[in-house]
Amino acid sequence: MIKPTFMMGYHRKDTSVITDPALLDELGRYLHALGRPDVAVVESRNIYDRFFANRTVEEVARYFNIASSYYRVVDTSMEQIPHAYFRGLAQYSVARSWKEADFRITFGKMRSHPIELAYLTTGNVEWMGGRCDEFMFPERQAERETAIMMLLDEFPPQLALLDAYDSAADGLIGVMGCPRPKSPRRLYAGADALALDIVAARHLKILNPADSSILRAATHWFGNPAAASQVIGTDEALADWRGPYDNELSALLSFFAFPVYVFGSGRGSLFVPEMDEDAFPPLHRGWFTRIARAGMVRLLGLHHGR
Fold it and tell me: What is the pLDDT of residue 306?
């Protein structure tokens, strides 16, 4: 199973939030050559399907040309099965494909994040259980990072890959998109997703993993592998990476990002990027929603123009 990220994709003009389809095809080709004929690329529906049509995994994959003769695409939101986790609380299911896989690969995309500072390979597995929005809003029974740790604890990936090559989303809200992405020209790989993320975070000038709630939770659950990690290749910070705390305004917006999103976003309906509405028509066309979304796009710097 290969878990890339492409369901946050919203427009062909911005591919900074999706794993490069060419890399997925090449990975599938490589695994096929190793004698692994059944390779699946797995993703799950996210919160965007609450607000826009045509947002199934198959439809979004087709839109971004994620297809290959070397793998099949699987919608894990359609194959959730009950599972009794040994540790943690309020994660009650897992995708059958992810659970039963002989070999699991998390293939993330380097992105900044207003809360996590960076969203890398450990957080990338969160969609393999319950939907992310089940762990974000006021009625949640558990924190989002706990749900992710439960998946990593019982169904860990055996290989972590991070696409930081051609188009990486930087800035205040890189996890959602970036009109002017960076091109770090780097690919990261490691058998330990957490070790990889700590190295990549350091290259993004995040020196303390505890500054990210996901990395803080992961080191609490599994220990900090930094002392035993060896970097083979470039081990230098990205000089032009800004991150979400680049200036005072960005830092202020990042500080308030989580409470505003949880309590003031209309369950996420007002915090969406400039979606390609020809491909993904909005489900709700009220004038207030359209104006609020357009204003938020401008505020967050996700406007691409026409």
Answer: 44
